[in-house]
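Sample 1 of the test manifest.
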Amino acid sequence: MLAYTVRRILTTIPVMLVVAFFVFSLLYIAPGDPAAIIAGDQATPADVERIRASLGLDQPFMVRFGEWLWQILHGNLGTSIFTNLPVAHMIAQRIEPTLSLMVLTIIFSILIAIPLGVVAAWKHGSWIDRCVMLTAVFGFSTPVFVVGYLLAYIFALQLDWLPVQGFTPISDGLWPFLRTLILPTIALGLIYVALLARITRATMLDVLNQDYVRTAKAKGVGQRAILFVHALKNAAVPIITIVGNGVALLIGGAVVTESVFAIPGLGRLTVDAILRRDYPVIQGVVLLFSLTYVLVNLAVDLLYTVFDPRIRY
Amino acid sequence: MTTPHGGYAEAPALPDVLPPVKRRGRVGTFVHRHPTIVLGGALVGVMIAIAILAPWLGTVDPTALAPAKRLREPSAQYWFGTDMLGRDIYSRVIYGSRISLLVGFSVALCASAMGTLVGVIAGFIRGLDAVLMRIMDGLMSIPPLLLAIALMALTRASVQNVVIAISVAEFPRVARLIRGVVLSLREQPYVEAAIASGTRVPMIIWRHIIPNTLAPLMVNATFICASAMITEAILSFIGAGTPPTIPSWGNIMAEGRALWEIKPYVVFFPAVFLCITVLAVNLLGDGMRDALDPRLAKRL
């Protein structure tokens, strides 16, 4: 088990290397010459050349990649072209709203989607099943910002129950914090709920046909115990796999949701960086989000043994 | 044993227990078996027709400015109202279907082609498998939307670049799918027989491998098409997609953003068209998957 864990952790290294290489190439081929930008309009070509040499920009690609990687590993993500602040600093300032939104969405979606999927599988073919499947198809077909605007229009503008936009840090109290995040969480969660409910239903349908479920029924185990103890436990592995994979959708969705609800998080930072072509910031955010995705899926892989003791590595 | 009739006992007439068989024509059977394919396909067909027939559907020039008539509510003259520059939203939405469909279909085609190429190479050439798949793993760990955004940040906004960016973001998943199919096909007796009889590898790939990847590839391409249309709208919405001069659904919604609280219809109409189109393509994909893989039909 320990050997497997170590091996599995080591496999994330080549993956992250590919990500880092891609992200570095992004800056390398990005239009615009950093040396010329720093030198300003008055500089002579000799000045630009001198600055280029001092920044190490005249080095070959692989040398620069190595140096850049070395800096990243020391937590130095570079400096924003636009604000001149360290990228790591800018990311640290913006991380709370995004993290809150994503964690809340994951909790919300799991709490909604798994019972929905279980009931849909149990009442296979009934109207509940059809409703769940229909919601799932709609969830896949509606862009997150459309759901966001629709929710904001109904619950914030028409009914005036919740704030339209903004973010309150958790240090200002739990309720004000949750209030601003309810609509974004539901908007962002819809596609995730669709994904999870669908896979839960599919896996549960498989599991409910197994012999041990029939045995449990035959010996008089209650319906609820069969569903949530016998069946759901055995359906856990595919479900948590999708929870992990779905984080990629969630990250993309968070970028959009934050724009709709004016949440000052990493998504807004990304969108602003793109409009300003602030490449170091884009790099930093892409690296961070990809690392998050890789780590979440690493955790999911390692969780398999907890949910299914039959899996031994 | 003899019977009074000197032959065989007469069997009593059987009651007619089987309900009469409803006869359907070929089309009827297809509609009955695959309602989602028919519904999705019909909707996609309507959308394609709208896109092609855009100039004849009562539209005016979608880019014609009329500052005096800006922000008119939907009415008999302006079915979907006008935007802040006085452009007719109905015409913009109708013409916008061209961009969405173009991006959706092109991405589905490009991503499938790129994915098949990489997948077949990885599945057939053992030495390249590990390297290629690690690269695909790396690309797949960048969330697709971010990957597309990052690529768009590098290039000028144009429909072509949007197609390339979304295709690059989508193709690693196709590659992994096709590699899996190829690996299992390699073990099939007919492929082994072809190898044993000295068929060249390109011929094996062309005759035996490619045809068998088509079914999963097509289903997958449909889902890519749906997700590409959403991604295009999102890219345009955050200002990193199709150039604002081109009326795409994402651009119309992006322009409506500033005013959505007072003039929600600017965002509403393109959103409805986008959702219906994506829904149609998703239904088509679901139906095709069920039809091509009956084992899955009951489940998903």
